[in-house]
Amino acid sequence: MQEQSYSYPDTATGTLSQMRPVLLSIDVGTHSLRSALVSPEGHILAHDEEPLLIWKTASTMEFCSENIWEALINSVNRLISGHRLNQEDIKGIGIDTTYSLVLLNQQMQPVHLPGSHRADTFGWMDSRASQQAACIAREYPGLFAHAGSEITAKSNSSKLLWLFQCAPQTWQAATCILDLYDFITWKLTACLTRTPGSTSHIFTRDAAAQLNIDIQARFTGELLGIGAAIGDGLSQSAADQLNLKQGTPVATGIVDAYGGTLATILASHHRDSQQPLDCITRRVSFIGGTSSNYVAFSREMLTCNGADGPYASVLEGYSLIYARQTAAGAFIDHIITSHPAYSSIYDISVSLGVGVHEYLNQILNELAGNNRSEYDDNVSKLTAHLHMLPYFDSPEVNQPQRGMITGLTLDKSHQSLAVLYLASIQALALDARYQLEKLKKAGYDVELLIPTGGLAKNLLLLNEHINILNVPAAIMEEKESMLLSGAITSSVAAGIYASIEDAMRAMSHYHHRIEPNRQLMDFYQKKYDIFLKMKKCQQSWE
């Protein structure tokens, strides 16, 4: 590694000084874009957040690529201007984004989605292509199996077929189609690139021919590996907009769940310790946000029904697989905001200067007879007569089930909302147990959970997962560990580290472990038995 020095933020002035080198990490989420300054040792020295425009219905999710780029400019400029930092201090730029798809024309200008005057980007949660997904699964089984991809309405392949069949004028205009992270790196470098995870790599010529869809001309661009440096780095135009140095290395982009996995899966407990690489085959990264992903590794390409994968990973000799919950944070928010008590709960939480989840956690502690602010194990049993299936999102080809709640009453109080909120958290953890047990049967080991993302900051949710899964969790040193993703890839592009593995080892560390509460095992086993019975019962109705 190159010689470096850095300092922590000055708490008096809010500035950073003598920080060389520094990496710029950019994380494009569902509702906001975040930028961060990260040291090569994995310390997040400062970060900033900018909200994003989003148009969402029950079956659609749309973004505006120009708004995302403007948010990036605003966030980075605010981040840089708030600290004493020279342009030369930033040694590399790395990107991760949601699994979204941008439409551009021959002049590389936005092509708006049907019925929109601003949106040109299919959001990752968009499920309007349900008929196309069902058609592919029924008539072309295994068409995308080469990439480990199990077809769903949210798959980019399904969305492209929908666009081709249902919006021919938009399709004709969209002569360039980019994964969102490839779009961002193009805006930064003026170079069109793709990675092995990009839609262009998954949508083969054979698949295009079988579906009778002309796709290849829309997928131009140089194929580069994850962490590769793009072209000559930051373009003059982007450098001027961001007030950064032209030629600053820019790494190829990565989807956020993959980036979060690289930021966590190889984490060591002590900075001077070295974990053997094969420890990743006994761990699961829990990437919790608007959606959640549970990511496991193996040496063999082990398949699992209902999971997405396996895919070859950037760590040579290892593949990875995703067990997904396409609505996690979104599901919890739906439960909360649709309750009659939500408005008053929101007003009170604002007056107290806390988030809604934090205030609901306080109510649950009070109901459990606990006057302390931290998590109390007695809270878990408040749902003894309330059970839930969390499948409130649009049903998929491989997941036809829907949401379900049993144990409801006429209670409209704050307390009833708090218990419903707890039941939704438990439902997600019970579904995670169901999915991880399938991974175990397929040959994956699950001995340690490593959480990151917004949901992982909720101590109640984290403890419910640990107890229901009956698996310990390693708590990352950095609370915003998702922001390590772009730092890991950019450190390789900048030549600070020779490989992604080296960068992961240097930057990824956990603080301590939380063990499951064995005294609650019988309670959670009963909850899980009911969860399985509810699934089986609903399946019989189909």
Briefly summarize what is shown:
The chain is α+β, with helices and mostly antiparallel strands and 542 residues long.
Give the SSE layout.
Blueprint: E1 22-28, E2 32-38, E3 44-51, E4 55-56, E5 61-63, H1 65-81, E6 90-97, E7 101-104, E8 121-122, H2 130-139, H3 156-166, H4 168-173, E9 176-179, H5 180-189, E10 193-194, H6 199-202, H7 205-211, E11 222-223, H8 236-242, E12 254-255, H9 256-262, E13 283-288, E14 292-298, E15 308-312, E16 319-325, H10 329-337, H11 342-352, H12 356-367, E17 387-389, E18 404-406, H13 414-442, E19 448-452, H14 459-469, E20 473-476, H15 484-493, H16 500-507, E21 510-514, H17 521-541
Parallel strand pairs: 1-6, 6-12, 10-11, 13-19
Antiparallel strand pairs: 1-2, 2-3, 4-5, 5-8, 7-8, 7-9, 13-14, 14-16, 15-16, 17-18, 20-21
Helix pairs in contact: 2-3, 9-15, 10-13, 11-12, 12-13, 13-14, 13-17, 15-16
